[in-house]
Please model this.
Amino acid sequence: MSTIIEINDFSAPELDIYARLTENQLLNRHEPHKGLFIAESPKVIERALDAGCIPVSLLLERKHIHGEAREIINRCGDIPIFTADFQVLTNLTGFQLTRGALCAMRRPPLPDLGQVCSGARRIAVLENIMNPTNIGAIFRSAAALHMDAVLLTPGCSNPLYRRSIRVSMGTVFQIPWTYTGHESSEWPHPGIHLLKELGFKTAAMALCDNSVRIDHPALLAEEKLAIVLGTEGDGLSLSTIADCDYTVRIPMSHGVDSLNVAAASAVAFWQLGSR
Model:
Protein backbone atom coordinates (compact mmCIF):
# COMPACT_ATOMS: atom_id res chain seq x y z
CA MET A 1 0.00 0.00 0.00
CA SER A 2 1.45 3.35 -1.03
CA THR A 3 1.99 6.08 1.55
CA ILE A 4 0.29 9.39 0.75
CA ILE A 5 2.28 12.39 2.00
CA GLU A 6 0.74 15.87 2.05
CA ILE A 7 3.04 18.72 1.01
CA ASN A 8 2.08 22.21 2.17
CA ASP A 9 5.25 24.13 1.32
CA PHE A 10 6.91 24.35 -2.09
CA SER A 11 10.33 24.40 -0.38
CA ALA A 12 9.74 20.99 1.23
CA PRO A 13 12.72 18.68 0.57
CA GLU A 14 10.38 16.00 -0.75
CA LEU A 15 9.86 18.21 -3.81
CA ASP A 16 13.58 18.64 -4.54
CA ILE A 17 13.67 15.84 -7.10
CA TYR A 18 10.76 17.39 -9.02
CA ALA A 19 11.43 21.09 -8.51
CA ARG A 20 15.09 21.75 -7.87
CA LEU A 21 17.41 19.02 -9.15
CA THR A 22 18.95 19.81 -12.53
CA GLU A 23 18.91 17.37 -15.43
CA ASN A 24 22.60 16.66 -14.85
CA GLN A 25 21.96 15.91 -11.18
CA LEU A 26 19.18 13.53 -12.14
CA LEU A 27 21.39 11.90 -14.78
CA ASN A 28 24.16 11.32 -12.17
CA ARG A 29 26.98 10.71 -14.65
CA HIS A 30 29.39 9.60 -11.91
CA GLU A 31 27.05 6.87 -10.66
CA PRO A 32 24.72 6.19 -13.60
CA HIS A 33 23.11 3.21 -11.86
CA LYS A 34 21.65 5.75 -9.41
CA GLY A 35 20.36 8.04 -12.16
CA LEU A 36 16.73 9.14 -12.25
CA PHE A 37 14.33 10.75 -14.70
CA ILE A 38 10.94 12.43 -14.39
CA ALA A 39 7.96 11.21 -16.41
CA GLU A 40 5.16 13.76 -16.78
CA SER A 41 1.44 13.07 -17.40
CA PRO A 42 -0.50 9.83 -16.91
CA LYS A 43 -0.01 8.56 -20.48
CA VAL A 44 3.76 9.04 -20.39
CA ILE A 45 4.02 7.42 -16.95
CA GLU A 46 2.03 4.43 -18.22
CA ARG A 47 4.34 4.04 -21.22
CA ALA A 48 7.38 4.14 -18.94
CA LEU A 49 5.83 1.48 -16.69
CA ASP A 50 4.96 -0.63 -19.74
CA ALA A 51 8.65 -0.50 -20.70
CA GLY A 52 9.65 -1.84 -17.28
CA CYS A 53 10.95 1.39 -15.74
CA ILE A 54 11.02 1.31 -11.94
CA PRO A 55 9.11 4.10 -10.12
CA VAL A 56 10.61 5.80 -7.05
CA SER A 57 7.86 8.25 -6.09
CA LEU A 58 4.79 10.00 -7.47
CA LEU A 59 3.72 13.63 -7.25
CA LEU A 60 0.02 14.03 -7.91
CA GLU A 61 -2.58 16.71 -7.79
CA ARG A 62 -4.90 15.60 -5.00
CA LYS A 63 -7.94 15.04 -7.21
CA HIS A 64 -6.07 12.47 -9.31
CA ILE A 65 -5.33 10.08 -6.43
CA HIS A 66 -8.79 8.54 -6.67
CA GLY A 67 -9.30 9.59 -10.27
CA GLU A 68 -7.13 9.58 -13.36
CA ALA A 69 -4.00 8.29 -11.59
CA ARG A 70 -5.65 5.47 -9.65
CA GLU A 71 -4.47 2.73 -12.05
CA ILE A 72 -0.95 4.17 -12.07
CA ILE A 73 -0.88 4.06 -8.26
CA ASN A 74 -1.95 0.42 -8.34
CA ARG A 75 0.88 -0.40 -10.76
CA CYS A 76 3.58 1.45 -8.82
CA GLY A 77 3.42 -0.63 -5.64
CA ASP A 78 4.67 0.60 -2.28
CA ILE A 79 6.24 3.97 -3.10
CA PRO A 80 5.66 7.43 -1.59
CA ILE A 81 2.90 9.49 -3.16
CA PHE A 82 3.35 13.21 -2.62
CA THR A 83 0.31 15.42 -3.04
CA ALA A 84 -0.50 19.08 -2.51
CA ASP A 85 -2.97 21.78 -3.29
CA PHE A 86 -3.01 22.93 -6.89
CA GLN A 87 -1.62 26.34 -5.89
CA VAL A 88 1.47 24.72 -4.36
CA LEU A 89 2.09 22.58 -7.42
CA THR A 90 1.72 25.44 -9.89
CA ASN A 91 5.06 26.71 -8.58
CA LEU A 92 6.59 23.86 -10.56
CA THR A 93 7.69 25.13 -13.95
CA GLY A 94 5.40 23.75 -16.64
CA PHE A 95 3.10 22.00 -14.18
CA GLN A 96 0.07 22.71 -16.34
CA LEU A 97 1.66 20.52 -19.03
CA THR A 98 1.92 17.49 -16.74
CA ARG A 99 -1.85 16.95 -16.37
CA GLY A 100 -1.31 16.81 -12.62
CA ALA A 101 0.91 13.73 -12.49
CA LEU A 102 4.68 13.28 -12.26
CA CYS A 103 6.71 10.18 -11.48
CA ALA A 104 10.37 9.89 -10.53
CA MET A 105 11.84 6.72 -12.00
CA ARG A 106 15.18 4.95 -12.13
CA ARG A 107 17.08 5.22 -15.39
CA PRO A 108 17.24 1.79 -17.03
CA PRO A 109 20.65 0.44 -18.06
CA LEU A 110 21.35 1.09 -21.73
CA PRO A 111 21.70 -1.85 -24.12
CA ASP A 112 24.71 -2.02 -26.39
CA LEU A 113 24.62 -1.07 -30.05
CA GLY A 114 24.40 -4.66 -31.23
CA GLN A 115 21.38 -5.41 -29.06
CA VAL A 116 19.52 -2.32 -30.26
CA CYS A 117 20.22 -3.10 -33.91
CA SER A 118 19.43 -6.81 -33.69
CA GLY A 119 16.57 -7.58 -36.04
CA ALA A 120 16.26 -3.96 -37.17
CA ARG A 121 15.87 -3.00 -40.83
CA ARG A 122 15.65 0.78 -40.45
CA ILE A 123 17.41 2.81 -37.78
CA ALA A 124 17.88 6.52 -37.16
CA VAL A 125 21.29 7.84 -36.14
CA LEU A 126 21.41 11.27 -34.50
CA GLU A 127 24.71 13.15 -34.61
CA ASN A 128 25.24 15.79 -31.91
CA ILE A 129 21.61 16.96 -31.81
CA MET A 130 21.51 19.07 -28.68
CA ASN A 131 18.00 20.50 -28.42
CA PRO A 132 15.81 18.30 -26.15
CA THR A 133 12.69 19.38 -28.03
CA ASN A 134 14.16 18.15 -31.32
CA ILE A 135 15.23 14.88 -29.70
CA GLY A 136 11.71 14.30 -28.40
CA ALA A 137 10.10 15.18 -31.73
CA ILE A 138 12.47 12.88 -33.63
CA PHE A 139 11.70 9.98 -31.31
CA ARG A 140 7.98 10.53 -31.77
CA SER A 141 8.39 10.48 -35.56
CA ALA A 142 10.71 7.46 -35.38
CA ALA A 143 8.16 5.47 -33.40
CA ALA A 144 5.24 6.53 -35.60
CA LEU A 145 6.95 6.25 -38.98
CA HIS A 146 8.48 2.80 -38.99
CA MET A 147 11.95 3.18 -37.50
CA ASP A 148 13.07 0.10 -35.59
CA ALA A 149 15.65 1.81 -33.36
CA VAL A 150 17.48 5.08 -32.65
CA LEU A 151 21.20 5.57 -32.05
CA LEU A 152 22.66 8.79 -30.63
CA THR A 153 26.24 10.03 -30.66
CA PRO A 154 27.66 11.11 -27.28
CA GLY A 155 27.16 14.78 -28.17
CA CYS A 156 23.37 14.42 -28.28
CA SER A 157 20.99 15.63 -25.59
CA ASN A 158 19.76 12.76 -23.41
CA PRO A 159 16.37 11.34 -24.50
CA LEU A 160 15.31 11.01 -20.85
CA TYR A 161 15.51 14.73 -20.16
CA ARG A 162 12.08 15.92 -19.08
CA ARG A 163 11.39 18.02 -22.15
CA SER A 164 12.46 15.25 -24.50
CA ILE A 165 10.20 12.73 -22.77
CA ARG A 166 7.29 15.17 -22.79
CA VAL A 167 7.66 16.15 -26.46
CA SER A 168 8.05 12.50 -27.47
CA MET A 169 4.78 11.66 -25.67
CA GLY A 170 6.61 8.78 -24.01
CA THR A 171 7.75 7.14 -27.25
CA VAL A 172 11.32 7.21 -25.87
CA PHE A 173 10.09 4.19 -23.89
CA GLN A 174 8.63 2.42 -26.91
CA ILE A 175 11.48 2.37 -29.41
CA PRO A 176 14.89 0.81 -28.64
CA TRP A 177 17.77 3.28 -28.36
CA THR A 178 21.30 3.65 -27.12
CA TYR A 179 24.47 5.67 -27.71
CA THR A 180 27.05 4.89 -30.39
CA GLY A 181 29.75 4.97 -27.70
CA HIS A 182 30.86 6.72 -24.53
CA GLU A 183 33.26 9.22 -26.09
CA SER A 184 32.86 11.66 -28.99
CA SER A 185 35.98 10.13 -30.53
CA GLU A 186 33.97 6.93 -31.19
CA TRP A 187 31.94 8.63 -33.94
CA PRO A 188 32.07 8.51 -36.91
CA HIS A 189 34.77 5.88 -36.29
CA PRO A 190 34.34 3.15 -35.24
CA GLY A 191 30.56 3.81 -35.10
CA ILE A 192 29.86 3.76 -38.84
CA HIS A 193 32.18 0.77 -39.27
CA LEU A 194 30.18 -1.13 -36.64
CA LEU A 195 26.94 -0.35 -38.47
CA LYS A 196 28.42 -1.65 -41.72
CA GLU A 197 29.57 -4.82 -39.94
CA LEU A 198 25.94 -5.29 -38.88
CA GLY A 199 24.88 -5.11 -42.52
CA PHE A 200 23.57 -1.53 -42.66
CA LYS A 201 24.02 0.85 -45.54
CA THR A 202 24.30 4.41 -44.27
CA ALA A 203 22.40 7.40 -45.65
CA ALA A 204 23.61 10.87 -44.65
CA MET A 205 20.86 13.49 -44.80
CA ALA A 206 22.74 16.50 -46.19
CA LEU A 207 22.61 19.20 -48.85
CA CYS A 208 25.47 18.28 -51.15
CA ASP A 209 26.00 18.47 -54.91
CA ASN A 210 26.54 14.71 -55.19
CA SER A 211 23.44 13.76 -53.19
CA VAL A 212 20.54 11.60 -54.37
CA ARG A 213 16.86 12.38 -53.93
CA ILE A 214 15.15 10.79 -50.96
CA ASP A 215 12.90 8.80 -53.30
CA HIS A 216 15.83 7.22 -55.16
CA PRO A 217 15.00 3.54 -55.94
CA ALA A 218 18.35 2.31 -54.59
CA LEU A 219 17.54 3.65 -51.13
CA LEU A 220 14.15 1.99 -51.05
CA ALA A 221 15.69 -1.30 -52.15
CA GLU A 222 18.23 -1.49 -49.31
CA GLU A 223 17.51 -4.36 -46.93
CA LYS A 224 19.02 -2.52 -43.93
CA LEU A 225 19.41 1.25 -43.85
CA ALA A 226 20.71 3.68 -41.22
CA ILE A 227 19.41 7.25 -41.70
CA VAL A 228 21.94 9.71 -40.28
CA LEU A 229 20.76 13.18 -39.19
CA GLY A 230 22.99 16.04 -38.09
CA THR A 231 23.01 18.75 -35.48
CA GLU A 232 20.92 21.90 -35.66
CA GLY A 233 22.46 24.59 -37.85
CA ASP A 234 25.67 22.92 -39.01
CA GLY A 235 24.19 19.57 -40.02
CA LEU A 236 26.38 16.48 -40.36
CA SER A 237 30.15 16.66 -40.13
CA LEU A 238 32.05 16.35 -43.40
CA SER A 239 33.79 13.20 -42.17
CA THR A 240 30.45 11.54 -41.45
CA ILE A 241 29.11 12.46 -44.89
CA ALA A 242 32.28 11.10 -46.54
CA ASP A 243 32.01 7.80 -44.69
CA CYS A 244 28.33 7.15 -45.48
CA ASP A 245 27.23 5.06 -48.45
CA TYR A 246 24.68 7.63 -49.63
CA THR A 247 24.22 11.37 -49.30
CA VAL A 248 20.49 12.09 -49.43
CA ARG A 249 18.54 15.30 -49.96
CA ILE A 250 14.89 16.23 -49.56
CA PRO A 251 13.81 18.24 -52.64
CA MET A 252 12.75 21.79 -51.71
CA SER A 253 10.65 24.50 -53.31
CA HIS A 254 10.09 28.27 -53.00
CA GLY A 255 13.78 28.86 -52.38
CA VAL A 256 13.79 27.06 -49.00
CA ASP A 257 17.20 25.48 -48.51
CA SER A 258 16.57 23.18 -45.55
CA LEU A 259 14.16 21.94 -42.89
CA ASN A 260 14.47 21.84 -39.13
CA VAL A 261 16.07 18.51 -38.21
CA ALA A 262 12.90 17.27 -36.52
CA ALA A 263 10.81 18.06 -39.62
CA ALA A 264 13.44 16.53 -41.90
CA SER A 265 13.44 13.36 -39.80
CA ALA A 266 9.68 12.93 -40.23
CA VAL A 267 9.98 13.23 -44.02
CA ALA A 268 12.92 10.81 -44.12
CA PHE A 269 11.31 8.24 -41.84
CA TRP A 270 8.05 8.29 -43.80
CA GLN A 271 9.82 7.83 -47.13
CA LEU A 272 12.45 5.32 -46.04
CA GLY A 273 10.88 3.52 -43.08
CA SER A 274 10.29 -0.22 -43.02
CA ARG A 275 6.67 -1.03 -43.78
User: Anything to note?
Assistant: Residues 8 and 84 are 6 Å apart (CA to CA). The longest strand covers residues 55-61. Residues 132-144 form the longest helix (13 residues).
